[in-house]
Design a protein that fits this description.
By secondary structure, the chain is an alpha+beta fold. It has helices at 3-11, 15-24, 31-38, 42-54, 73-93, 106-115, 128-142, 151-159, 165-174, 190-197, and strands at residues 29-30, 58-63, 66-71, 95-97, 103-105, 116-117, 120-121, 148-150, 178-181, 184-187. The chain has a three-stranded antiparallel β-sheet. A hairpin with a 2-residue loop joins strand 9 (178-181) and strand 10 (184-187). Helix 6 crosses helix 7 (128-142). The longest helix has 21 residues, at 73-93. The chain is rod-shaped, with a radius of gyration of 26 Å. The two termini are 25 Å apart.
Amino acid sequence: MDAELLVTLKALSDASRLRIVGLLAIRPYAVEELAAALGLSAGTVVHHLKRLRTARLVNARDARPYVEYELCLDRLHEIGRRLGELERAAETTDVLPGPDGEPLPAYDAKVLRGYIEDGRLTTIPAHEKKRRVVLKWLLDRVFTEDREYPEKEVNQRLALYHSDVAALRRYMVDAHLVTRAAGMYSRAAEQQVETAAGEPA
């Protein structure tokens, strides 16, 4: 984590500063107004505002006869984007055990542990990115051989993991993990499977 982002997160780690940010998200405030709203001394508020200004989270503006402080929304959005980037990087590099104990990318492992119980799918995820993780997990267990599978066999295999086999079949085809022609199903080419499994939400 870079030093600038660390300074910002430290600035936001204090409860009083978070309360100040919450008030400034509504409208600009003068020091005296913040002190009264928070039950703090003006000197304490000034201290907290200095920390927030160092992190570029607030700006001072002349509103005679006072100086008012306003929240830098662009800066908050920037922090959100950077934290999202860190999260995505962690998802691809960190490894955690999946429901079967096998090492998986952290995000995949967390999703599967949330939806797989005793080797069965508890529910089909509504969120597309999570659903792709579950579908890829099913693909590796249902379509184990490089051959065509009749629909009846696909249904039997999918039923071992969840009762709504029609929805799972459709999702797997729509996600380009499986191809379907004349009632026969086949696992898509491995490169296509990896591309489909890694598509952004």
